[in-house]
Amino acid sequence: MKTFNLPDLGEGLPDAEIVRWLVKEGDTVTLDQPMVEMETAKAVVEVPSPFSGVITRLLGKPGDVIDVGAVLVEFDGDTSSSTPIASTPKPASEPAASAAVQPAPAAGPQEIFKLPDLGEGLPDAEIVRWLVSEGDSLTLDQPMVEMETAKAVVEVPSPHAGVVARLHGAPGDVIEVGAPLVTFGTAGAATPAASEQVAQSEADEPEKQGDAGTVVGAVQVGNQVVAESASAVVKALAKKLKVDLTKVIGTGKDGNITQADVKQAKKDGKLLNASAEQTQVLANAAVNAVVDDANPLNYKASPAVRSYAREQGVALSQCIATGKKGSITKADIDQAARQPAGQRASAPAAAVDRATTGLPSVQVSVEPQTVRGVRRAMAMGMAKSHATVVPTTLMEDADITAWPKQDSLARYVRALVYACKIEPALNCWFDGEKFERLVHPAVHVGLAVDSPDGLYVPVIFDADKKNPLQVRERVQELREKIETKSLKQEDQQGATITLSNYGSIAGRYGTPVVSPPQVAILGTGRFRNELKLTANGISQRKILPLSLTFDHRACTGGEAARFLSAVIEDLQKPQ
């Protein structure tokens, strides 16, 4: 029997709630098969199986809260997540030594830890930086590496206690889910009992190990900003237990607040009151501390600016951002450095104001910037399209003067559906290697959505079966998922044709890019009022510019023209 403990789900939180089991006891599961949906404080994520085998026991039921590191599933059978490198067997003729005198083997079996799904539903992640080195001895759940997905930078913890034999990859490398990440040596295959003992010893003596990944931040309390020094896990625990960290005295290394401090404060039923001297110590720590700039989600600043801030001993939280879209510049660092330590800004109003505008946050820097996450996926998709698609664009106008006040996006989707029924050749997928096309009976509309992180194209499934209200509800759902970074991979797959409403920002006509294996994308431009000569004389008309790009390998010009004509026909209807 082998146990699987709940890993850190990439949120830095101490526990997660079971939403629903996707398997049951007695089921045979394969490697990476989703087993359970767990809800953290930020999202609902699927936890995959780390082994192939038979489930003998599920620890918990929907609604139960499971601590990170606690047993979640027990397995029996072929519980292998990878092919172990076996130690050299002894010859059959050699007698076995007694257990009392048998020496330890020189080189025991190794175990390969593969990159798990980090709760994002994405196929890969990029190494930001290693937190351990080859030869290091790790404890259960000790952070090993920071990985960047399309949505966040997350820490991947060690699945057990052991010795690091090999690190697979260097910072900047992209590792696919299921590919080797860390190889553990002889001590890597810790037993469940040993892992539990390590976890228990860590819980009993948290002050001895310190707070790995500690960040220094500031918590707003009324009109006063009080410094706090605590890890993300401690902060999450305090939030869960409703403990005010600003009134807790840390007993950990360098005065850091530990989980034990938070639990003790809750157990006592009252918060510790810091003395005037201790308050001054905390205030000084806030002035002199430099925030952890490794996480690019903390503040809007380029890598070069972050490095410069560390050199100058200035915390990004002490800077008033004057750069584009609320980004912090080197000039802002210099300005903060010139201020007396006690007078530096602690919560820059300008930065907060810009952060709440909803405008995209672009890091402005003369230094090269690595394209990651959603932007990297977008770049790869555009490159694939450029290399494989033979694009041709038709442009025309639709007269929508007769429209009453209504949801224009829902009308665009309806017109696409109508045109797909009139000319289905553009609602298809094309395989350029096999020269095969698949014409779809259903219409699944991909919707290009601009965001600060890059371009998302989530899907309105079965758009041909939805009314305008249902379309709007689906669009709103997708936008909320993008804003909360909870959009799953399945939300972005399966589109049969795409809509790009760039006119909601600016632009009349364009050459939208087809996303293979799709063969068409419709771009809707910005409305304009135009004087036109009609049978009743000159009148002012409301005009909608349209741009249809199609893959000329899969569609003829006539098919594309008939499709665009059908779109215009539906758009020009009053209702």
From TrEMBL:
The keyword Acyltransferase applies. Residues 229-266, 300-337 form the Peripheral subunit-binding (PSBD) domain. Residues 86-105 have a biased composition (Low complexity). It is an enzyme of class 2 (transferase). Its EC number is 2.3.1.-. Coiled coil: none annotated. It comes from the Bacteria. Keywords: Acyltransferase, Lipoyl, Transferase. Residues 78-105 are annotated as: Disordered. PROSITE patterns: BIOTINYL_LIPOYL, LIPOYL, PSBD. Residues 1-76, 110-185 form the Lipoyl-binding domain. Pfam families: 2-oxoacid_dh (PF00198), Biotin_lipoyl (PF00364), E3_binding (PF02817). Forms a 24-polypeptide structural core with octahedral symmetry. Belongs to the 2-oxoacid dehydrogenase family. This is Dihydrolipoamide acetyltransferase component of pyruvate dehydrogenase complex. It comes from Aliikangiella maris.
